[in-house]
């Protein structure tokens, strides 16, 4: 037997595994690095988050990625060059974190690398009948493995697409395994560039669990913070708090087939971007709106569409607790408006469940790698968009 395969087999048989989960989202803030100790699998999964860091992307790298990010026409050489470059960069970021934590790479079993999304194209979005759902993440796993010397699982979303899913969001699996609780209806709300939530019913029935995108989270807010404030984001929503919501523009922003589509569904900055807002402003005759009013309207747009989606899964007479994570959880303007819109729900942070909300997405990919190694028996029912599959391609260091 190949010694690398033997090593992978031995890791799968261990009572617990040390797995580094990586996540870099559409906000392009940087790389989340979560060192997890994981035992069990499926609903018996137990995760201890041992270390966590976010390694920021510098402005040069952000600019490089934005030349190909969420664009239908790009310089193909740039894409080709960035694929290995980001893989090697992520590998070095892992080594730097391990050095800071005084942990030898040989004491880590597996890396679970999400990669950097550069384009997301579900069939509902691209509308080409002969082509299936599609998504693309770069930062090749072979390069991560070669740099770190650690077996790497990567490219998780492709298996989801191959079995009929849209490739996102994938949180349904990890959220159910880590956070489902008998007797409490839970909604795990992640507000990254795009907002999504996982519904976890109090009866813990896996066939009723699902994750769906709701629309914009921070992607439009961050784009206009760069435009108006020359900052990566509107800190604490202070600029938005100075403005007034323009209802005409808000109504125009909500006119999109995505909001009428059934759950689960997915979207991205390919749809919700500055040109999308420009078009809504033209239709609503709000081209000359004050910048603060535009920002306030965009916050309300995110809050309304998140709340509208959550209301579709809540029932009168039942109580629900919403656990928030992602960058949007740090924006009091956004969270405050959500609490007003969902006054029948109780709000909390994922951190109260033992997982740092900022680390949650990276931890979820560590759980997916663990499931591919040691689990894979949990059925989520025969439902489109929630295939019961193991995910991730394996890259050996040698």
Short overview:
This protein has 398 residues and is α/β, with parallel strands linked by helices. The protein is built from 14 helices and twelve strands. It is globular and about 70 Å long.
How is this structure best described in words?
The chain has 398 residues and is α/β, with parallel strands linked by helices. The chain folds into 2 domains: 3-170 and 359-395, ATPase, nucleotide binding domain (Nucleotidyltransferase, domain 5), CATH 3.30.420; 181-353, Nucleotidyltransferase, domain 5. The chain has helices spanning 3-13, 59-66, 76-100, 123-126, 141-148, 156-162, 171-179, 219-229, 238-241, 247-253, 274-284, 291-311, 332-341, 360-374, and strands at 16-24, 30-39, 46-56, 110-121, 134-138, 152-154, 185-191, 194-200, 210-216, 320-325, 345-349, 393-395. The strands form 2 sheets. Strands 1, 2, 3, 4, 5, 6 and 12 form a 7-stranded mixed sheet that branches. Helix 7 (171-179) crosses helix 14. 50% of the residues are buried. The model has no long low-confidence stretch (mean pLDDT 94).
């Amino acid at each position: 037997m190949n010694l690398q395969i033997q090593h992978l087999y031995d890791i799968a048989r261990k009572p617990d595994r040390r797995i580094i989960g990586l996540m870099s989202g559409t906000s392009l803030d940087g790389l989340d690095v979560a060192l997890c100790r994981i035992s069990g699998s499926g609903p018996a999964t137990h995760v201890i988050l041992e270390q966590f860091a976010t390694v920021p992307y510098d402005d040069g790298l952000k600019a490089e990625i934005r030349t190909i990010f969420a664009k239908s026409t790009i310089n193909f050489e740039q894409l080709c060059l960035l694929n290995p470059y980001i893989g090697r960069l992520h590998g070095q970021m892992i080594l730097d974190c391990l050095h800071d934590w005084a942990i030898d790479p040989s004491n880590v079993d597996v890396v679970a690398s999400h990669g950097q999304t550069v384009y997301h194209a579900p069939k509902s979005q691209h509308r080409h009948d002969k082509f299936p759902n599609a998504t693309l993440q770069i930062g090749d796993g072979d390069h991560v493995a070669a740099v770190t010397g650690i077996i790497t699982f990567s490219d998780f979303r492709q298996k989801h697409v191959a079995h009929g899913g849209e490739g996102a969001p994938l949180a349904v699996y990890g959220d159910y395994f880590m956070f489902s609780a008998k007797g409490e209806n839970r909604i795990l709300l992640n507000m990254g560039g795009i907002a999504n939530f996982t519904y976890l019913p109090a009866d813990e029935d896996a066939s009723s669990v699902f994750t769906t995108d709701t629309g914009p989270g921070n992607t439009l807010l961050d784009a206009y913070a760069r435009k108006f404030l020359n900052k990566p984001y509107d800190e604490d929503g202070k600029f938005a708090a100075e403005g007034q919501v323009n209802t005409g523009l808000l109504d125009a922003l909500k006119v999109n087939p995505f909001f009428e589509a059934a759950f689960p569904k997915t979207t991205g900055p390919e749809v919700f971007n500055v040109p999308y807002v420009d078009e809504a402003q033209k239709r609503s005759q709000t081209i000359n709106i004050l910048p603060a009013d535009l920002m306030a309207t965009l916050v309300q747009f995110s809050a309304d569409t998140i709340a509208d989606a959550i209301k579709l899964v809540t029932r009168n007479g039942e109580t629900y607790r919403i656990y928030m994570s992602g960058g949007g959880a740090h924006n009091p303007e956004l969270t405050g408006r959500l609490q007003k819109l969902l006054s029948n729900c109780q709000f909390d942070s994922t951190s109260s469940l033992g997982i740092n909300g900022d680390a949650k997405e990276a931890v979820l990919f560590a759980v997916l790698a663990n499931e591919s190694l040691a689990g894979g028996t949990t059925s989520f029912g025969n439902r489109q968009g929630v295939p019961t599959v193991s995910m991730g391609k394996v890259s050996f260091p040698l």
